[in-house]
From TrEMBL:
This is Aspergillus nuclease S1. Keywords: Disulfide bond, Endonuclease, Glycoprotein, Hydrolase, Metal-binding, Nuclease, Signal. SUPFAM superfamilies: Phospholipase C/P1 nuclease. One of its GO terms (molecular function) is single-stranded DNA endodeoxyribonuclease activity. It is an enzyme of class 3 (hydrolase). Residues 1-25 form the signal peptide. It comes from Lolium multiflorum (Italian ryegrass). It catalyses: Endonucleolytic cleavage to 5'-phosphomononucleotide and 5'-phosphooligonucleotide end-products. Pfam families: S1-P1_nuclease (PF02265).
Length: 309
């Protein structure tokens, strides 16, 4: 094969640069951890349904498929806005629906063409809704394997504070910082850098050791909080909206706080922020299990209906 011509090289470079922007959500690790936690809290019925829906390549483990939605981001370009939600520079997420004729509008949940519901909250409700047609072949025209893989990914994403953040800076993507000595942007710091550093400092760079520590904490440090994490009184849809409200609050109080362009973030930032990241990974796991149990557990589904709007 001939060497690529300069034009082609430039194009390739451009493609790579574009790919680097907002390319991931929680990095691979974050998504895998969230799903590994969720797997431990699935009811028998839910675990069986999940196993049946997973592709053979998953080896029966949901966590292996949780980064999938990032891997298909270029093939499924329409799904890009489903990884996040933006607010107009405000620390509140406004999901109040306004009605005009038969249409409804959300301030903070639409894609760049204004198509309503095309954000991470809409996506979680959408894929939940699709999975509720499991075993009901008359209603199911969707590929439920994909619905499951999308849902598992987006429940992780909605817990990453900078996935529900300011439109102006693309959730921190346009804020350049240094993470210790390395160049990064703020979004990447929260997707990947903090997790990498905490894995290196505390868990011997081992993902399973970190999952184990988070899991242990469910019965220790967090035991009093878990009933509140699981509390979802919204019987019409999931509680994704509440998780988004939490995230933008954390974005303002932790992620953006005291950060400016070109700042170097080091120990002070790391030590005050990593506990937030650990907690969000754990909460994402618990909530994903909750949603899947409500979808698939036939014993509970009558008392906890989950119909997306
Ligand atoms: C949310 O948006 C609606 C409609 O735009 C507005 O009426 C309402 O005051 C907003 N609520 C908050 C808490 O900002
Ligand atoms: C709902 O899922 C379908 C199938 O993947 C997709 O075409 C549609 O854009 C999704 N909408 C939202 C809001 O997630
Ligand atoms: C459903 O989606 C998965 C993942 O994209 C794909 O491998 C599989 O072939 C699809 N199944 C059908 C019936 O289209
Ligand atoms: C366990 O929970 C406590 C209390 O919230 C928290 O301070 C600590 O960082 C958590 N530990 C881990 C490993 O997440
Ligand atoms: C669950 O949340 C609702 C509404 O926020 C609240 O009224 C209720 O007390 C909570 N229940 C528990 C067990 O935390």
């Amino acid at each position: 094969m001939a060497a690529p011509r300069p034009q082609q090289q430039l194009l390739l470079l451009l493609v790579l640069l574009l790919a680097a922007r907002r390319a991931e959500a929680w990095g691979k690790e974050g998504h895998i951890m969230t799903c590994k936690i969720a797997e431990r809290y699935l009811s028998e019925d839910a675990a069986a349904a999940v196993r049946e829906l997973l592709p053979a390549s998953a080896g029966g483990e949901l966590s292996t498929m949780c980064p999938w939605a990032d891997e298909v981001r270029f093939r499924y370009h329409w799904a890009s806005p489903l990884h996040y939600a933006n607010t107009p520079g405000l620390c509140s997420f406004n999901s109040t629906r306004r009605f005009l004729l038969l249409l409804s509008f959300y301030r903070d949940c639409h894609n760049s063409n204004g198509v309503q519901g095309m954000c991470v909250i809409g996506a979680i409700n959408n894929y939940t809704d699709q999975l509720l047609t499991y075993k009901d072949s008359t209603k199911s025209s969707y590929n439920l394997t994909e619905s499951l893989m999308f849902l598992a990914h987006f429940v992780g994403d909605v817990h990453q504070p900078l996935h529900v953040a300011f439109e102006e800076d693309e959730g921190g993507n346009t804020i350049n910082v240094h993470w210790y000595k390395a160049k990064a942007n703020l979004h990447h710091v929260w997707d990947v850098s903090i997790i990498d550093t905490v894995m290196k400092n505390l868990y011997n760079k081992d993902l399973d050791t970190m999952v184990e520590a988070l899991h242990m904490n469910m019965t220790n440090g967090w035991s009093d909080d878990i009933s509140q994490w699981k509390n979802c009184t919204n019987t019409q849809t999931t509680c994704a909206n509440d998780y988004a409200v939490e995230s933008v609050g954390l974005a303002c109080n932790y992620a953006y706080k005291d950060v400016e362009e070109d700042i170097t973030l080091g120990d002070e930032y790391y030590f005050s922020r990593y506990p937030v990241v650990e907690k969000r990974l754990a909460q994402g796991g618990i909530r994903l299990a909750l949603i899947l149990n409500r979808i698939f557990d036939k014993k509970k589904v009558d008392t906890m209906p989950l119909y997306a709007q």
